[in-house]
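Q: Hi! First time doing this. I have a protein sequence and I read that you can turn it into a structure. Is that right? Here it is:
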Amino acid sequence: MPLPSQKHMGRLHRRPGVNPIMNLLSKAAALAAAALVLPVSAQAPTKDIVDTAVGAGSFKTLVALVQQAGLVDTLKSDGPFTVFAPSDEAFAKLDPALVAKVTGDKELLTKVLLYHVVPGKVTAADVVKVRRAGTALTEEHRTAGVAVKVMNGKVTINRSNVVATDVMASNGVIHVIDEVLIPPASFLD
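A: Yes, that's right. Below is the predicted 3D structure, encoded as structure tokens:
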């Protein structure tokens, strides 16, 4: 591409201190960078919710509990699902007595895990628009679900902070939370 002549440079260079060639080069570089990024991000995820969680490496406890509860096939199905996934660190914060109670009762464990699953694909952009989200557990019992709050750009689900969003899977999306969501006592009896 030939460089603009000095005559044309005067017309391009309207703002003092702006070099039109550098301006064009920076725009070209930005377009090239976008072209490199867009094809990767535009690809549909190939792993389902379970395989995505396994691959992340920070949901070992959650994956083990999903297996124990017999929910693997459900979370590998078409969905779509939104999972508010507690990290391993979130599970480590729990009272050991509560962990023993929940893991010792498959029905109770299933209820706690389903309280983390919202039917449908709810991205971060969608989450900030709602005040409540019906979970797989609460929809079954036709109650309110989890509370969603947005304050100063931070999202909480009940009292748990959302620490990472939009981990895409082929059958939904995962949002990482820093505390395990415990359903209301009425669900645990």
